[in-house]
Specification:
The chain is α+β, with helices and mostly antiparallel strands. It contains 19 helices and 35 strands. Helices cover 31% and strands 23% of the residues. Alpha-L-fucopyranose (FUC) is lined by residues 372, 384, 389, 393, 521, 602-603, 643, 645, 683, 687. Alpha-L-fucopyranose binds next to loops.
């Protein structure tokens, strides 16, 4: 027998104590066949080799505790995350004299002195980026399971079953079949790894924990390994991870960092982790969770996880294309798809459902919302700190939440935003001498709202307002009046109050404009030939504010609140500087016709009103639809859409424009150019927004409900000639199930959750009808009712 030379061999060196474990209180059952996942290969990612790099590993998660499964044979590696593992430097402060400079910078901008204004803003308004103030999300650490290198390995398979939320590794080594199962349970708040083998007493592995930086204190107890560290060189949270090892037979031998298991029939590892981020003693939290697993068998744990997961996942089905390509490993399938996507349309449902899988796995009630990498993040210094960018990225993460029937997964977004808004009040008061709240382009789990760094990113006070659009949307989808009254309206009102104090009249036009502000991350050429990024009355700001006021006014009226103030808001709205269309027919990103420094820029902020906003549509504002289309074409002609999230946004834009062929071209490009072999969105290494934006884009091609009419199959390409879906949700609380053949609906069921009137549009035809809560309505492709007719 050979030992893998590359792998650390702790078991021999640090043998100290031999314990034959007697499991006193855990009821341990060998999983029966019924506990094995039902094979649903069409909704599975699978590979015939282990991951060689992190972006090939497979993610599991329960909203707050996640793992990336590498599937190594002799060296299994599970990289782990706990959502609150964050460093914490000094909090950013508003510069004491910043407010005066806001006034000065405005005067310069109104006077056309853009470069001077920007220099002044960077010197006096934006707080400098201090290394100690840059907080970052980090890995929790790594679990290693090492064994001897076998002489022969056959039938290797590493897979993630989206139908169950369980990852598996299977192979036969030296005539013994090994199976490993991995899942992270939301109901039991534990990550579970089960090792099984076809022959008794044949599992021999070393198990240990580690963390980059080697600062973690690692100790062992009778049957557990504990890892403790105050992260970020002691500036961050105190974290504890406990890996508990359970065997029904075999020997468990202590090593320095962990255990050596020999002669076991099977091994069960429970991982629990906690920090003091929300208070409490992290070790006690972990112990309590383990204590709660007393008397629970592996089968029960497994079944509880699968039931809980399926309760969310099974709500939506999507069928496009039939293929046997899922018999190919997913990395090979992806490569083939890049050549001939039309041969494997069934990859679209897999990609779509993977987005839903990821949302379920990284955003559950009580958790933090999905950050730039969702939950999964390797190392101590991830790109952009794996934080929350709120100039599109956090919002995009939640675009699929309602339409793909995962409303519970949306809740962490609101909890987070509510806390952010509390902090944003202080920034509004000190920086802008305004009431209400404000947040700029980034934030993190300590909720900074101060503008930081360079003006091109940092000086953009619309982040908070954009977040509030999702509150209103949540109400439209769910009809939750309590939410509207107690959370949505208060948030929207405070965001609006900020702008009532912040907006200024443009002395040249007399209309109200926002600023000083950037058009997220874009740069223009000033008339004097300089590059600059801040101006007054940029299109995106004006669009967000217009929409915010529209929604606040609508909510205030529904709730019959603040009548006088709502009237004032209505008058202010009438005096907002409108978004303009330039002489070239495009939407003007800035209020002057500047030359763009990067005409193919990845952000297409001025098209906010098209998506996710609802300001532009073909029936009421066709001129803006045409102008948006032109703007988009121009961006693309100049190299736009190169990052995954940007490409995903473009799919949604084309879906809203009703252009299914273009939406499909960009969906193909997203999968072709920006998708890694584990189907993560590639933004080196990975950014999850592209996945979520892509999933939302597919939904937007199938149904749309941003106006008073639900549009059915508004943007499907000719190639998707037949298909079906069920469980997609439209605003107003309608669940839609339908199938189509040769591009024409064969049958459609509308289930009314709330009893709202329903208005449908399909192929230029329209039908309106009243509904009763809980009732189903069946229609054909001519929008005629099938039996039973509506009451
Ligand atoms: C925005 C984008 C970048 C990246 C970063 C996290 O700044 O412009 O592409 O996605 O967020």
């Amino acid at each position: 027998m050979k030992k893998n030379k590359k792998e650390p061999n702790n078991s021999c060196m640090f043998k100290s104590l031999k314990i034959v474990t007697t499991l006193l209180f855990f009821v341990f059952l060998i999983p029966s066949l019924s506990a094995q996942p039902e094979e649903r290969p069409a909704l599975e990612l699978w590979y015939n080799r282990p991951a060689s790099v992190w972006t090939e590993a497979l993610p599991v998660g329960n909203g707050s505790l996640g793992g990336m499964v590498f599937g190594g044979i002799a060296a299994e590696h599970l990289q782990m995350n706990e959502e609150t593992v964050w460093t914490h430097g000094d909090d950013y402060q508003v510069r004491p004299d910043a407010y005066q400079y806001v006034q000065k910078v405005r005067a310069l901008l109104f006077n056309g002195q853009y470069a001077e204004a920007q220099a002044l803003a960077e010197a006096h308004i934006l707080s400098p980026r201090m290394p100690s103030g840059t907080n970052t999300y980090q890995t929790l650490g790594d679990l290693s399971i090492l064994s001897e290198i076998p002489d022969t390995v056959t039938g290797y398979r590493r897979s993630l079953n989206l139908q169950t939320g369980v990852a598996h590794v299977n192979y036969t080594a030296d005539n013994i079949s090994y199976n490993r199962t991995y899942f992270s349970s939301y109901p039991d708040q534990v990550m579970v790894i089960h090792l099984g083998a076809s022959r008794p007493e044949s599992i021999n592995v070393d198990i240990f924990l580690s963390r980059p930086g080697n600062r973690a204190e690692i100790t062992t107890g009778v049957d557990y390994i504990k890892m403790h560290e105050v992260v970020g060189d002691s500036s961050g949270v105190e974290m504890v991870t406990i890996a508990k090892i359970l065997l029904p037979g075999g020997d468990l031998i202590h090593t320095k960092k962990g255990f050596s298991v020999s002669g076991a029939d099977e091994v069960l590892i429970f991982i629990t982790a906690a920090t003091d981020y929300r208070g409490g003693n992290p070790e006690l939290i972990c112990q309590n969770r383990l204590e709660n697993l007393r008397n629970i068998s592996y089968n029960q744990l497994y079944n509880r996880h699968v039931t809980d997961y399926r309760n969310l996942f099974d709500r939506v089905k999507l069928g496009i294309g039939k293929t046997d390509k899922h018999n190919n490993p997913t990395d090979i399938r992806l490569r083939e798809w890049q050549q001939h996507p039309e041969d494997d349309l069934a990859l679209i449902p897999l990609y779509f459902q993977y987005g839903r899988y990821l949302l379920i796995s990284c955003s559950r009630p009580g958790s933090l919302p999905a950050n730039l990498q969702g939950l999964w993040c390797d190392g101590l210094n991830p790109p952009w700190n794996s934080d929350y960018h709120i100039n599109i990225n956090l919002q995009m993460n939640y675009w699929p939440a309602e339409v793909t029937n995962l409303t519970e997964c949306h809740l962490p977004f609101f909890d987070f935003a509510d806390s952010l808004f509390v902090h944003g009040k202080e920034t509004a008061r000190t920086l802008y001498h305004a009431r209400g709240f404000v947040a700029h382009h980034i934030t993190d789990v300590w909720f900074p709202t101060v503008p930081v760094g360079r003006a091109v990113w940092g000086l953009w006070p619309l982040g908070g307002a954009w977040l509030t659009r999702q509150y209103w949307d949540y109400y439209l989808f769910t009809g939750d009046f309590d939410f509207l009254a107690n959370r949505a309206y208060p948030a929207m009102k405070e965001a609006s109050v900020f702008f009532t104090d912040y907006l200024v009249r443009n002395p040249n036009t007399g209309l109200y404009v926002s600023g000083p502000s950037s058009s997220p991350e874009n740069t223009f050429i000033t008339p004097g030939g300089n590059r600059a990024s801040i101006a007054m009355g940029n299109a995106m700001d004006q669009e967000i504010i217009t929409e915010l006021f529209n929604q606040t006014i609508a909510a205030g009226r529904l709730l019959k609140r603040d009548r006088k103030w709502i009237k004032k808001l209505q008058s202010l709205k009438a005096e907002l500087a409108p978004v303009k269309i330039g002489s070239d027919g495009r939407i003007m990103e800035w209020s002057s016709p500047f030359k763009e420094a990067e005409p193919g820029h990845r952000h297409m902020s001025h098209l906010y009103g098209l998506y996710p906003g609802d300001l532009f549509n073909w029936s009421q504002t066709p001129e803006f639809m045409r102008a948006a289309e032109k703007s988009l074409e121009y961006r693309l002609k100049n190299g736009g859409g190169h990052t995954g999230w940007s490409r995903a946004w473009i799919i949604n834009f084309y879906a809203r424009l009703g252009n299914g062929e273009a939406a499909w071209q960009h969906l193909k490009a997203l999968i072709d150019k920006s998708t890694l072999s584990n189907l993560f969105d590639n933004h080196p290494p990975f950014q999850i927004d592209g996945n979520f934006g892509g999933t939302a884009g597919i939904a937007e091609m199938l149904i749309q409900s941003h106006t008073d009419t639900i549009r059915i199959l508004p943007a499907i390409p000719g190639q998707w000639s037949s298909g079906s879906f069920s469980g997609l949700v439209a605003r107003g609380g309608f669940v839609i199930n339908l199938s189509w053949e040769d591009g024409f609906i064969t049958e459609m069921e509308i289930i009314s959750r709330l009893g709202n009137p329903c208005r449908l549009q399909y192929h230029g035809q329209m039908v309106s009808f009243d509904t009763s809560p809980g009732k189903s309505y069946f229609l054909n492709g001519d929008l005629e009712f099938l039996m039973p007719a509506p009451l």
